[in-house]
């Protein structure tokens, strides 16, 4: 099957996920399951994994679970029924995903996790995640400097079921809380959502008009917060995000959002496919199950080098 045909198969799978299709078996197919591609981070993961799989000679089944653990379980059933050779997964909950990964393992299908860990070891073959704590400390240090070590600020938290949300918040606070003149006046989840972050930011501004800065658990929420701040005429507020999206890059270059932290979504997904390929061919990835990839601070100095969750030299 040529490259165009393989990518068409992937595109058709994405289009059909809402219908819970019954896929025909494919001899050498890798399933790629992520949250919604409405978030460019997750789309970059799926695109990176699919491109590497095609390069290595596999067909792909690209599926979206929308952070719904029940839907994720059904997608695992579809992938298992189709006889896929491996599953690349950005999961829908650290606890809720353990059963799905175990189900695949029991069927002889190895899983390779990216971005988010699960709460069990020895079930997935690989768990490749960004060093969220290290990245959050980078973001926290930049936020402190931008705030001049003083002022009232708000925090937008990610989805509670996602371990990354807590790790990032802890990393931020292990830095920011060292500065007594920085005062947290509002903290609320926006569930990784741009729309929800817009609404939350509006409420925060009404309750605390003195807010000087906002630190966000991801770029999607940062963009929602920035839109609300612009609408309120508060472009003086300092906003720092996390992910390294093109949208935030563009905002930084226009003087809007001040900084973000890049986690290499595209490269991480490609690494997972390479490890899946090695495991299928040799029975081993040659590396430990749990692997960390360091993050990079993105600000006005290097934003122009950022493209699709990757930093050029």
Automatic annotation (TrEMBL):
One of its GO terms (molecular function) is carbohydrate binding. Keywords: Signal. Residues 30-281 form the Periplasmic binding protein domain. GO terms for cellular component: cell envelope. It is found in: Cell envelope. CDD domains: PBP1_TmRBP-like (cd19967). Residues 1-26 form the signal peptide. Belongs to the bacterial solute-binding protein 2 family. This is Erythritol-binding protein. It comes from Rhodobacter aestuarii.
